[in-house]
Each structure stands twice: as structure tokens, then as C-alpha cells.
Write a structure and sequence with these properties.
The chain has 126 residues and is an alpha+beta fold. It has one domain (28-121): Nucleic acid-binding proteins (OB fold (Dihydrolipoamide Acetyltransferase, E2P), Beta Barrel). The protein is 20% helix and 35% strand. It contains two helices and six strands; from the N terminus they run H-E-E-E-H-E-E-E. The protein has a five-stranded mixed β-barrel. A hairpin with a 6-residue loop joins strand 1 and strand 2. The longest helix has 19 residues, at 3-21. It is globular, with a radius of gyration of 19 Å.
């Protein structure tokens, strides 16, 4: 391999490696488990790269805990029918998601069931 070809390969691998490492995965979450909680929305932050849902939910011991659910990217949410006003402070909903491995009150959202029964998916419906 010539020096020029070797340098080109190194540059391409470096650029691709940087782009691939820029986005996090779901390794911190137990994607084999789903936790479903009756929740009261505290705040819905319509932000990039992922919207965040802050909500309160009772734990097994009855204590109310503050949770954060990370959603898909805004483009996916929009295609799935979400808007920045889909969730508002004080709404009572059911939230299902994949909990963090470390036991913290965080999850990757799977779906939200609104009081009227509509299901808001975290993915584009097929």
C-alpha cells in the first residue's frame, strides 16, 4: 500500500469513527424490560437531539419520585404525530419505557397513553 493510500484510509476511518461515536446508544437502559407508570407531567422539553419528559410517579413504596423519559429525535416524534404541545404540565398519563440499568429514575420512552386513550408512540407507526 502506498503512503498516500494509507493516509487516505486513516483519514476516512478517523472521520467515520468520529461521526459514529457522536451519538449515544441505549446501553445504559434495559431494553428487555418495560416499566409502566401512572404519571403526572411536570415538563415536556421539546429540544434537540431528544425531547425530554419530566414526570412524577409513585414508586412501589408509595413515595412520589421525579422521572425523566428520553424520547426519540424530534423528526421521528413529528412523524409519529407529536407536537411540542402534546404533553403539558399537570396532565395525567400512563408512561411506558425501558428503565436505566443503574436504578435511577430515567428511561427511554416506549409510549405515552393519554387520558383520552390515544397512544403516542416513540416510534413512527408502521
Amino acid at each position: 500500500m502506498t503512503t498516500r493510500a494509507a493516509v487516505t484510509v486513516i483519514m476516512v476511518v478517523s472521520i467515520l469513527g468520529t461521526r459514529l461515536g457522536a451519538h449515544h446508544g441505549a446501553a445504559a437502559y434495559d431494553m428487555t424490560a418495560t416499566r409502566t407508570l401512572e404519571a403526572t407531567i411536570v415538563e415536556f422539553r421539546w429540544i434537540n437531539p431528544h425531547a425530554l419528559i419530566e414526570f412524577d410517579a409513585a414508586s412501589e413504596d408509595g413515595a412520589v419520585r421525579r422521572w425523566t423519559a428520553e424520547t426519540a429525535g424530534l423528526t421521528i416524534l413529528i412523524r409519529a404525530g407529536w407536537t411540542k404541545s402534546t404533553l403539558t404540565s399537570g396532565m395525567h398519563v400512563t408512561i411506558a419505557g425501558h428503565p436505566a440499568h443503574n436504578g435511577s429514575t430515567t428511561m427511554i420512552l416506549d409510549r405515552v397513553v393519554l387520558a383520552d386513550g390515544r397512544v403516542m408512540s416513540n416510534f413512527v407507526p408502521r
